[in-house]
Amino acid sequence: MQYPEPIAKLIDSYTKLPGIGIKTATRLAFYTVNMAEEDVTHFAQSLISAKRDLKFCSICGNLTEEDPCAICTDDTRNQGTVLVVEEVKDLMALENTNEYHGLYHVLHGVLSPLAGQGPDDINIESLVTRLQKNEKIEEVIVGTNANAEGEATAMYLSRLLKPAGIRVSRLATGLSVGSDIDYADEITLIKSVEGRTQM
Amino acid sequence: MQYPEPIAKLIDSYTKLPGIGIKTATRLAFYTVNMAEEDVTHFAQSLISAKRDLKFCSICGNLTEEDPCAICTDDTRNQGTVLVVEEVKDLMALENTNEYHGLYHVLHGVLSPLAGQGPDDINIESLVTRLQKNEKIEEVIVGTNANAEGEATAMYLSRLLKPAGIRVSRLATGLSVGSDIDYADEITLIKSVEGRTQM
């Protein structure tokens, strides 16, 4: 005997989400049946709305309802700095610190030869065009993740942009605040010695 | 800065699902934005449909589109046996074996004093009424989970139903098929000795 069609379809939809297998999908589907009708309706509406009402900012690639996005159109922000991140989530994490007041550029990916992802597959061309058009931009801060792919992308961007006379910098790597030195991995320790700051 | 409203709402909806925290919800929401429009629409529709088109069978508590459910209305099934399970998922697991051809009764829960769940909170009254009305039912097989709460519920049902002259049995506990004796826990081993079968 199969599950009734409505729940079978819902299970099928849940399994399309990343990291959710058939067992979890079944659990979620049964949970959904017991949820308040209002919550289910909101859920369905927000799915549709997230797909329909959101677009990527044509300047920086941020996720937004209005194009260009609120950051690109904010004249009070420092127009001379562009922080390059891999994903919109990274932009949000940096914004939530309330300490960076410049502009952003979202690559929507990272250079990854193993995954077959080259410079043309991520938002690099639009960054170059942006830098050519906008003479106010003096510095590009590369905020890709501190892993092999993020470093490779940072290196690529640095080689691409420096000849054009743009200052390229990289977010600092070192000990996480609150961490113990004896638990830190070796490479982090080496980086933290190399990048030591004057007191 | 906050996420744009459509995605913030979607993150909020995802966090309402069990076992999904804010980090996973954010990941799922961003994934949703990049999904095919068709898949998102299907997802939203199946959410609504699962909530709207499904009900619980008024006889056995199974999840169904038509009340009473396909199992309760199937005259070819053995009308003399009722297998009592905790959840619809358990019913489906048993049905998928294609070996049990009697009826079911879904408790939608289990006796759990710690969780404040007593006999009135689960589908026991409807089972008693059903047994009183239907004289064809001769045996009740208790198929609650083989843990403390499942055992307690089985014991409760046995004491409740036996005085009414109904045969009450319990699914066998013992070694899982394919398992190694030296990896089995002690209680399972004791149960498998106690419940040994003649060869």
Automatic annotation (TrEMBL), chains A, B:
Please, one GO biological process term? DNA repair
Give residue ranges for domain Toprim: 80-176
Supply the alphabetized keyword list. Answer: DNA damage, DNA recombination, DNA repair, Metal-binding, Zinc, Zinc-finger
Matching CDD domains, A to Z? TOPRIM_recR
> Hey, which family's this protein in?
Belongs to the RecR family.
Q: What does this protein do?
A: May play a role in DNA repair. It seems to be involved in an RecBC-independent recombinational process of DNA repair. It may act with RecF and RecO.
Query: What's the protein name?
Result: Recombination protein RecR
